[in-house]
Amino acid sequence: MSNPRKRAREVVKNALSIALPDFTFRPAPYRSGSAATLPVYEVATPRTDISRESVEDELQDIRLEVVLRVAGGDAIFDDLDDLCQPLEAAILAALVGEFEESELTRIETATAPDGAEPVGLLLLTFQTRARVALGNPI
To answer: Are 107 and 87 in contact (CB under 8 A)?
Structure first.
């Protein structure tokens, strides 16, 4: 397996490109701009906790975050909530073949004023686990 953090981002990005065909992937954090550039999504792995299992391998517990930004309206929170379940299913299905354990651990919604129109934010936080062979320990 390539770097587990990188692989987690790749797997989720690929799953979201299918689940969210009208969204644009942004590899770097989205900066405020026109609502015309929305909807967008980002995938990040901001934290990994590592524990040694043996002299041969370690466990990496990877925190994976998916952020969606959509143009706001009167029902923005309902719209964001409607996205949660299908996205959770698509992401977990993609991770299951690559990682030992994966689960959704947090859902956050908010609005952020970007320009003349509010933007709805959906943050899905997942925890996934990778077993990594250490090679030839000294």
So the answer is: no
The residue among 42, 68, 60, 125 whose CA lies nearest residue 98 is: 60
pTM (whole model) above 0.85: yes
Distance of alpha carbon 98 from alpha carbon 125, whole angstroms: 18
pLDDT higher than 70, residue 17: yes
Which ranges of 1-138 does DSSP label H, i.e. alpha helix? 4-19, 76-96
How far apart, in whole angstroms, are the C-alpha atoms of residue 33 and residue 116? Answer: 10
Closest CA to 38 of 79, 92, 93: 79
**Beta strands across the sheet bearing 24-25:** 24-25, 40-52, 57-71, 117-133, 101-114
Give the up-direction half-sphere exposure of residue 87: CA atoms within 13 A in the CB hemisphere: 26
- pLDDT reported for residue 84: 94
